[in-house]
């Protein structure tokens, strides 16, 4: 049976998040410069977005650029920003045709003007699409996001808008960049690295983690299906016992 046919539509992760890693190593293995890895990485982005929408995943979040990525060589940062603009221009039509809403999380005002403008335009144009929400994490860092929440909440307490006692998970969720997204159910990281790298630390509290050695430019639809099948065979207990679940 093909992999896609093995996926159970009633057990899909409501929110799938992916750390797309290994573009640089993919290029190096082939004797090419790192930016060629990123260019090929965009093809995997396309494949995974298409596959996710086809299967019926409602929320897909991709770690496209971290706050730490600004420290990379200037040329690489510029290329990543150019690729973002190029992909947004190229894919707006596909997003509309497939009823996909684009959103972004992170310190978006850090982005170069052109990328920022293009991004906001696509977000605006797709805001009423409802089949799937594709969220790009751009200039995103989870600790920075948590600091933002703490500052906003302390400010509200100081101005008597909320009380200290009223602070709970739901208030924190409302102040995160991801306020309109559910918790992450499945987090995939490619390229053999087993770490989280400051991605959605609060939101992955109960996520299933899936690591694969495949480098991001080689990660295609079948690799996503394999990850989903693995996820569907796990028992998510959320702190309870197996017996309590059945
Ligand atoms: C990690 O590989 C990848 C990134 C830092 C950027 C991801 C970007 C893309 C896939 C292309 C653009 C995205 C969009 C949404 C249009 P790495 O460079 O860290 O690889 P390495 O660990 O092998 O060096």
Helix content: 40-55%
Task: Count the E strands.
Answer: 6
Low-confidence runs: none
Tell me about the biggest sheet?
Answer: 6 strands, parallel
Can you tell me the overall shape? globular
User: For this structure, what is the CATH class?
Assistant: Alpha Beta
* Distinct helical segment count: 8
Strand content is 5-15%
Radius of gyration: 19 Å
Bound molecules: farnesyl diphosphate
CATH topology: Undecaprenyl pyrophosphate synthetase
Record the strand order, biggest sheet.
3-4-2-1-5-6
Structure, described:
It is built from 8 helices and 6 strands; from the N terminus they run E-H-H-E-H-E-H-E-H-H-E-E-H-H. The chain is globular. It has one domain: 3-Layer(aba) Sandwich (Undecaprenyl pyrophosphate synthetase). Strand 3 (100-105), helix 4 and strand 4 form a beta-alpha-beta unit. Helix 2 packs parallel to helix 3 and helix 3 packs parallel to helix 4 (113-125). The longest helix is centred in the middle third of the chain and has 24 residues, at 74-97. The mean pLDDT is 97. The protein has 246 residues and is α/β, with parallel strands linked by helices. The chain has a 6-stranded parallel β-sheet, sandwiched between helices. Helix content is 43%, strand content 15%. Bound molecules: farnesyl diphosphate. Farnesyl diphosphate (FPP) is lined by residues 20-25, 38, 41-42, 45, 62, 64, 69, 80, 83-84, 87, 136, 191, 216.
Short description:
With 246 residues, this protein is of the alpha/beta class. The protein has helices at 23-29, 34-55, 74-97, 113-125, 142-158, 169-175, 221-232, 242-245; strands at residues 15-19, 59-66, 100-105, 132-140, 186-189, 208-211.
């Amino acid at each position: 049976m093909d992999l896609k046919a093995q996926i159970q539509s009633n057990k899909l992760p409501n929110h799938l998040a992916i750390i797309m890693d290994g573009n640089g190593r993919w290029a190096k293995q082939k004797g090419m410069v790192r930016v060629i890895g990123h260019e090929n990485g965009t093809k995997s982005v396309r494949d995974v977005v298409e596959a996710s929408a086809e299967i019926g995943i409602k929320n897909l979040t991709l770690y496209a650029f971290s706050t730490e990525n600004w420290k990379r060589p200037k040329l690489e940062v510029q290329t990543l920003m150019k690729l973002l603009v190029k992909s947004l221009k190229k894919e707006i039509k596909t997003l509309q045709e497939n009823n996909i809403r684009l959103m972004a999380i992170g310190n978006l005002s850090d982005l170069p003007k052109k990328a920022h403008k293009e991004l906001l335009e696509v977000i605006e144009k797709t805001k009423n699409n409802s089949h799937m929400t594709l969220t790009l994490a751009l200039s995103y860092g989870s600790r920075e996001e948590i600091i933002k929440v703490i500052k906003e909440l302390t400010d509200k307490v100081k101005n008597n808008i909320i009380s200290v006692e009223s602070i709970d998970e739901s208030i924190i969720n409302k102040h995160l960049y991801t306020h309109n997204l559910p918790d992450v159910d499945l987090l995939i990281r490619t390229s053999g690295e087993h770490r989280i790298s400051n991605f959605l630390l609060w939101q992955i509290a109960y996520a299933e983690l899936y690591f694969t050695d495949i480098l991001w430019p080689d990660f295609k639809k079948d690799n996503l299906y394999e990850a989903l099948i693995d996820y569907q065979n796990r028992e998510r207990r959320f702190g309870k016992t197996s017996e309590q679940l059945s």
